[in-house]
Predict the 3D structure of the following.
Amino acid sequence: MLHQNASIPLYEQLKNAIRKEINEKKYSPGDRMPSEAELEKLYHVSRITVRRAIKELCDEEVLVRRQGKGTFVIGEENRTRLDCGVKGFHESVQSNGRNVSSEIVDKQIIKVTASYARDLEIDPDDEVVYLKRVMYADDKPIMIDNNYIPVKRFPGIYEKLTGDVALYKLLETEYGVFLEKYYKVLKVQKANKEMSRLLKCKVGDPMFDLLKLTFDKNDRAQIISVSILKGEDTYYVLSNEDGDEIKHSGMRWKF
């Protein structure tokens, strides 16, 4: 029960009460919280108090709002590195103590668009390996990863891209290429049927489309990657400090 005459503001008391119930496992990670109206009646406080408490818990990355669905509890198992800066997905997720895996859903030799060819510094007629994977953290599908890898630059790589391959580690060990810089372009789109199937979401759900062009230490472009991330769990942060960040379900990841 909250204390109306206490020196601690009611919204702060409510925040502490919700935190306590989460710690005591009344609400587990991924659980939907009661609505604002339900919390208002449960704790005998005003709607303004409830809204401020919930907003601050979301800002503090204890809860997350999902449009049209409600407010949910964030937990460690919901926190996953989605974009990994210069590091590869496997290395970054493993360094966070998570089990990581990938599934190849498409692999073929293709020619890219003229703009991609310019970005990769290859001739328009040069072939690339197109590698499409679903990336998992603790068996949860996290993103769709599309890669465009120049064949001439990495001879024999098509045959090496099998199973649960860590792409960046493969480039280091097999080709001596260390990726150190990147350029990114962020767009937003809606999930189509394939995205919905692969990422276990609904058609029309908001998705982040993150294109990343990665360079070696000599500023030579090496790979284009296009990552598709679920928008409801992900938000992008810009700051005036060096680098930038992407967040997924409450955990921030610096590039």
